[in-house]
Specification:
Shape of chain A: globular
Structural class of chain A: alpha+beta
Number of helices of chain A: 3
Order of helices and strands of chain A: EEEHEEHH
Oligomer: homodimer
Low-confidence stretches of chain A: none
Radius of gyration of chain A: 16 Å
Strand order of the largest sheet of chain A: 1-2-3-5-4
Number of strands of chain A: 5
Largest interface: A-B, 36 and 37 residues
Largest sheet of chain A: 5 strands, antiparallel
Strand content of chain A: 15-25%
Helix content of chain A: 25-40%
Amino acid sequence: MYVNSCALCSPTSNTLLWQDDFCRVVLLNDVDYPAYCRVELLAHVQEMTDLLPLQRARMMKTVFAVELALREIFNPDKINLASLGNKTPHMHWHVIPRFENDRHFPNSHWGEAMRDGEPTAHDQEVIKAPVNIEALAEKINAHIQCALNSPAD
Amino acid sequence: MYVNSCALCSPTSNTLLWQDDFCRVVLLNDVDYPAYCRVELLAHVQEMTDLLPLQRARMMKTVFAVELALREIFNPDKINLASLGNKTPHMHWHVIPRFENDRHFPNSHWGEAMRDGEPTAHDQEVIKAPVNIEALAEKINAHIQCALNSPAD
């Protein structure tokens, strides 16, 4: 199903890191969260439980593969996962590496900011460094292939 | 693993809806979100990818079973799912039925409030009504049993 007014039903305007015929992984290029990724279902489906159990499992395997890749590359203090969709009810998962010195920590990045956007030395080194898109895409691809081809789920 | 300082390593102080030897489902009795549930892993594990793939699948099947039960009973406009854990890094999933007239919609319930806590007539009828704990627990149990006993994941 394709919905004309839905931003996620169109080709992405973000950096495409991975895609198959079921979903895609994009980098949001968020200024405060440069490694912030999103896993977007291609079909316009609102809730996880609107999907079949096998499709839910496939979606989550992809989300966890992205989580693994982000942890290996950025070594965050915490991973935040969320599927809200109140504004865009087209299934997508936020995968956000969080650092103790990031703008909102320990709050949700949708919550109150705890410090301004001025990067600390630690931020500059760990978070604000430009993301190596190729390396991230390669690691995400490797983890997704491994997860989707694994019999255990 | 049990961590003395961790709020989720102790028996819950919330309303227990379901529990097995792996995780528990609780009702938070949140004044703005009376049907707000949480699925809490019993073990003190920080990230989903610290779990084995089969454990991740078991956790998500439980989360989706709670989502199904909440949808059937409350018919929300949207379901919000999130695993953050920045303040309490012990794996737990927020499962929040959202309504267009709730306090923060369409924002995250961690974000800016869009209206005050005064319930509208619609709120009073749909959201603010006391939750029938027994009926909710029964439906959650039925969906979890069905999901955990299903070969498809």
